[in-house]
Design goal:
This protein is an alpha/beta fold. The chain is built from 13 helices and twelve strands. Keywords: DNA-binding, Transcription, Transcription regulation.
Length: 324
């Protein structure tokens, strides 16, 4: 390569490793030689010198099937791949939904196979977080990691704000028996969306009007049936995700309830699911692509040695459609 370009091997090495201090003439010569010879960088050899693997691992702490059911994950993956490609880095996807999966992730990361870790949907008390421990590659999270908010940088939507926006909208509509289907109560979305709901309703947010789901459509349908049995006079339900809201709509149809005439339904996410339900879903838009971008920006800052970084919390927006 160096001979073909007419420069030293050191100059070629500096350019391939991203060094800015390469003259324009040498840069042009090397790029022409690369094109003519079809040269491809040997990543294994480079990693021996740079101590970098050229990859980042995304860890999804959910069962495998959720990766394909929830459209939010495809948005996160798409943004991560695009931004990593701009730095000539690759994304490795790993699941950590059970003990065996978590052990594989820990072995992989501790084995030095990743430059950074991107955590997604991490639950409170997840042993994976402690197992990765200090001294490993930098880690960031989409959404806060409960109990590690000051340790693991994150980008998130303002969960409480979104819940308040939806609940206040129901109140303005004159809805009097407002229920909620939460997400898992060991996740920030589960906890903080319930907190926002309760902040608006106060003592009216009784346990009788609250049911819990696990972000899946089936859990939304099951929780809606529970609410109808407990409180058949409810006239609105805030569901903590669009996917669960699709399940709630199915349960309401099966029970002969008209939406929104009898029961108004609101979701959270503004994912592709929200426009595919019948009727289309009034929901809270969380800027998921922006959250992914900000999370990657935090990771890049850590990889570049920029020092401590601050969490990023982004505002949400009420999107009104036909379900409420």
């Amino acid at each position: 390569m160096a001979a073909a370009a007419g420069v030293s091997r050191g100059t070629v090495s500096r350019l391939l490793n991203g060094d800015k201090y390469v003259s324009p003439a040498a840069r042009v010569a090397i790029e022409r030689a690369i094109s003519e010879t079809g040269y491809v960088v040997n990543r294994a050899a480079r990693s021996l010198v740079t101590q970098r693997t050229g990859s980042v691992v995304m860890v999804l702490s959910e069962p495998h099937e959720k990766l394909f059911e929830d459209p939010n994950y495809s948005t996160l993956i798409r943004v991560a791949i695009r931004m990593l490609a701009e730095r000539d880095l690759s994304l490795v996807m790993m699941m950590a939904g059970d003990e065996g999966d978590r052990e594989r992730v820990v072995r992989y990361v501790r084995g030095g196979h990743a430059d950074g870790v991107l955590l997604v949907s991490t639950h409170a008390g997840d042993p994976l977080v402690e197992a990765l421990g200090s001294g490993g590659p930098p880690a960031v999270s989409v959404g806060a990691v409960i109990g590690h908010e000051n340790v693991i940088p994150y980008a998130a939507a303002d969960e409480r704000l979104g819940a308040r926006q939806m609940t206040e909208y129901f109140v303005r509509q004159g809805r009097r028996r407002i229920a909620m289907i939460t997400g898992p109560m060991d996740t920030p979305g589960g906890i903080q969306r319930l907190e926002g709901f309760a902040e608006v309703l106060g003592r009216k947010a009784t346990q009788r009007l609250i049911a819990h789901g696990d972000w899946t459509q089936a859990s939304g349908e099951r929780a809606m049936r529970e609410l109808l049995e407990r409180s058949p006079d409810l006239d609105a339900v805030f569901v903590a995700s669009d996917l669960m809201a699709a399940g709630a709509l199915a349960a309401l149809r099966a029970a002969g309830r008209r939406v929104p005439d009898d029961v108004a339904v609101g979701g959270f996410d503004d994912s592709a699911v929200a426009v595919s339900t019948h009727p289309p879903l009034t929901t809270i838009r969380q800027p998921l692509a922006k959250m992914a971008q900000e999370t990657m920006r935090l990771l890049f800052a850590l990889l570049d040695g920029a020092g401590p970084v601050e969490p990023v919390v982004l505002p949400t927006e009420l999107v009104v459609r036909e379900s409420a």
